[in-house]
Amino acid sequence: MKIEVKKNIMATNSSVAAGNRQRLAEHGVCMLNLMASPGAGKTSVIMKAIEGTRDRLKLAVIEGDIASEIDSLAIEAMDIPAIQINTGGSCHLTAAMVSTALDHLDLDSLDLIIIENVGNLVCPAEFDLGESTRMVIASVAEGHDKPYKYPMIFREVDAILVNKIDLLAHCDFDLAQFHQVVQGLNPAAPVIELSCRDSYGTDEWCQWLEATAIGSRLDLTS
Amino acid sequence: MKIEVKKNIMATNSSVAAGNRQRLAEHGVCMLNLMASPGAGKTSVIMKAIEGTRDRLKLAVIEGDIASEIDSLAIEAMDIPAIQINTGGSCHLTAAMVSTALDHLDLDSLDLIIIENVGNLVCPAEFDLGESTRMVIASVAEGHDKPYKYPMIFREVDAILVNKIDLLAHCDFDLAQFHQVVQGLNPAAPVIELSCRDSYGTDEWCQWLEATAIGSRLDLTS
Questions:
Q1: Which domain holds residue A149?
Q2: ipTM of this complex
Q3: Quick one: DSSP state of residue B117?
Q4: Which residues does A213 contact at the CB level (< 8 Å), separation at least 6?
Q5: Which residues of chain A have a CB within 8 Å of the CB of B123?
Q6: Beta-strand relationship, A30-36 and A133-139
Q7: Residue B26: CA atoms inside 13 Å, Cβ hemisphere, count?
Q8: How many domains does chain B divide into?
Q9: Which among B68, B89, B167 has the least Cβ separation from residue A141?
Q10: Residue partners of A183: CB distance under 8 A and separation at least 6
């Protein structure tokens, strides 16, 4: 098999992503692509969202991992539909993987699908999955220099979440400098500070998510 | 341009990596490929190695990042040769990138080259750079479940470093469970616990590094 490598892969992915986007619009479902380093707290952030919005939003989760079902089992234990995608060796989800996951969800019963992408600050930013909204989580333990080193992902998201705020006293993380750098890269993106451990910032995170899901639905159906 | 995608990329990379390995053997230089998530503390771990071994080992560092020169400037400030590779969009270093970096180092003057790979637990594990030794850093803040989710990298390294041990009291990291899982994946790899913040474990890390560099030199020249 011979193919024109990156150009063709990207063109095929974009076409499948457009199909996913159209399909979700027809069902009035918002889809959030949540990206972060390994261990930044993606699953915990999703679990806080479920706790805080389940009375008002009908949610499902698509879990992307190289291996294991740990995360989807944790979500299912909260009585939320969860589809696990194991990518094998691939360091990011593709639109085709998400399309297959959508086949297993009852889209008419949902307001919001949260995709937990593979833990990686590089390739996930390059692959459109058909989402309406993209978000990156930075963790205080990772250091405030990550936006310098991985500018693309911070530039291309709709919101930035700073997790593990409870570790500020124990890490050399300069919050003011972090805000300044991401403001330069992406002035339109709100930055939400959160601690899943002590629930600091949970209300703001859930309000943002609800407004995004409802706003997206209005856009999609207008 | 048409190429057979992954098979050809890997074959070319392996061939260039073999060339790097041969070249380093001729000069009696050990090369360590250091891999980890973004923000696991790779640069700090390297700086501890420089402080602890510079009297006995002649070191250089190759810094791999998507963007920025922050890390190589920090290493150069310690009077250690540092070559920055900015990969643009690529989420891992390749043997060809390292070959170019080696052109800029005086190999006869060195005992050890430490490569700081791009922050990523997936693709760096697939690309041989011509190193003699591979190592992964896990950070306490990332959680103890990372070996389940990224088994390949934990399986294929010669040693595992657990960094940010000072955060154990502030994170839900089960150290015993972590040891048990990595022991199952990779029984031969030593696990070194470290805190760059309070220098816990620095002696063990530097002793391991020195023994590895000297052992590798004996192997290379035997």
A1: 5-221
A2: 0.88
A3: -
A4: A30, A32, A57, A111, A112
A5: 91, 123
A6: parallel
A7: 8
A8: 1
A9: B167
A10: A191
How far from chain centre, in Å, is Cα A219?
A: 19
Q: Which residue blocks in chain B are alpha helix, DSSP H?
A: 5-26, 42-53, 70-76, 95-103, 146-149, 151-155, 175-185, 202-221
Tell me the pairing of strands A112-116 and B159-163. unpaired
**What is the number of CB-based contacts under 8 A between chain A and chain B?**
125
Give CA–CA dist B106/A193, Å, rounded.
46
Q: Tell me the chain A residues in contact with residue B152 when contact means C-beta distances shorter than 8 Å.
A: 66, 89
Question: pTM above 0.95?
Answer: no
Backbone angles phi, psi at A33, to 5 degrees: -100, 110
Sort out which chain B residues have CB atoms less than 8 A from A44's CB and list them.
none
Instruction: Evaluate if residue A1 carries a pLDDT over 50.
Output: no
**Inter-chain contact B38–A166, Cβ cutoff 8 Å?**
no
Q: How does residue A18 score in pLDDT terms, banded at 50, 70 and 90?
A: very high
CATH number at residue B138: 3.40.50.300
To the nearest whole Å, the CA of B109 is away from the closest chain A CA by 30
Residue tagged 């300044």 (tokens)? A180
- Exposure pattern of B23-35 as b/e (b: 16+ CB <10 Å)? bbbebebbbbbbb
- Convert the pLDDT of each residue in A63-89 to its tens digit: 999 889 999 999 999 999 999 999 988
B149, A68: Cβ pair inside 8 Å?
A: yes
Mark which residues 75-114 of B lie under 8 Å from A by CB: 89-91
Per-residue confidence of chain B (222 residues) as pLDDT tens digits?
Answer: 343 456 678 889 999 999 999 999 999 999 999 999 999 999 999 999 999 999 999 999 999 998 899 999 999 999 999 999 999 888 999 999 999 999 999 999 999 999 999 999 999 999 999 999 999 999 999 999 999 999 999 999 999 999 999 999 999 999 999 999 999 999 999 999 999 999 999 999 999 999 999 887 666 555
Separation of alpha carbons A136 and B28, rounded Å = 44
